């Protein structure tokens, strides 16, 4: 059983289970390409750009244009969550904790879904360049898709210059016009952005202040996604953030979070709350994702 269960006993004079501060929902829901997937590994078909051949002679031979077929690999990861509520604990409580335990599991799985996106957005992806089921090759995010931590001359947090460069890279890559642009970050990046803008002389100050306050979540063409799950390199205090077009990242669901609450006769008939899920993510196109390094040093 959970060794923390005594904190909810009757002497606490509470009829509700209070969830401590945590990210409860998935911040990337509806903001990446979402697909269902059967099987541990799946390749998603892609077709590269081709070029039209200009006709220069009458009755010339029909040109042959070889299409660039590629495939991007996505691997599902399985997640489990369970906890036990002892029958004796249950009688000492004003309410059964089972429903709150289920909520806690759902919150944990929502964060796991986001971590899959975060972990794979700028990491090495795997592709089949021939598109014919050959051996996969590792595809790293190229340096041209990265905004360095010292962009602008010295190590610094998020700045307008870094956002402008991110937007410029995506624009030069001709991101699909039907795609929305997103920027994933933590609270520290919003604070740094505000601190790096002159309140008096910069017209963007009011917009950034509203962004920090949570009054708006759009700025410079990006919808901002705040999550404290973003990767931090503790040895350097550098946070990995990223901007992207919505079709540039895929999240595949093999099985969405599925739960069961049942009695365990092998555990003195305790109530078990159990959830499982299968999810994976991959970067679909390097040109549609930009890594932005932000220094969080004091």
Summarize the structure.
The chain has helices at 87-91, 98-121, 160-172, 187-195, 205-213; strands spanning 33-36, 41-47, 69-75, 77-85, 125-128, 137-139, 146-147, 181-185, 218-219, 222-226, 232-233, 238-245, 249-264, 270-283, 289-295.
What characteristics describe this protein?
phage-related protein like fold; flat; 4-stranded mixed β-sheet; 15 strands; about 20% helix; about 300 residues; 7-stranded mixed β-sheet; alpha+beta
Protein architecture, described:
The chain is an alpha+beta fold. The protein has one domain (24-46, 68-295): phage-related protein like fold (Alpha-Beta Complex). 20% of the residues lie in helices and 32% in strands. It contains 5 helices and 15 strands. It has helices at residues 87-91, 98-121, 160-172, 187-195, 205-213, and strands at 33-36, 41-47, 69-75, 77-85, 125-128, 137-139, 146-147, 181-185, 218-219, 222-226, 232-233, 238-245, 249-264, 270-283, 289-295. The strands form 3 sheets. Strands 7, 8, 9, 10, 11, 12 and 15 form a 7-stranded mixed sheet that branches. Helix 4 (187-195) runs antiparallel to helix 5. The radius of gyration is 24 Å and the shape is flat.
Biggest β-sheet strands, sense, barrel: 7 strands, mixed
CATH class identity: Alpha Beta
CATH architecture: Alpha-Beta Complex
Helical stretch count?
5
What is the CATH fold-level name?
A: phage-related protein like fold
